[in-house]
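Protocol step 4 of 6: structure prediction from sequence.
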Amino acid sequence: VDFEVFRPDLEKALAYSDGSKGGRPPFDPVLMFKILVIQMLNNLSDERTEYLINDRLSFMRLLDLGLSDRVPDAKTVWLFRERLTQAGAIE
């Protein structure tokens, strides 16, 4: 599945700032969307999702993550879902 087709809609719904205020850059919205798909298909909690992404190479491969790449924590996954819900992009 080419998840890149969702990028314009995700970026529109999330409306990230330009980064001029500083802070850590956000995770790629397509990566975060893939995590939500994995989570929903496997009926996983945020905490279990974080653990399994770090544990399973198949999840890392789907997410295009390397072994040394930073993985979003459970709170980041929750916040991403909340932002999409508030924007009306998901239910």
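Step 5 (inspection) to follow. The mean pLDDT is 90.
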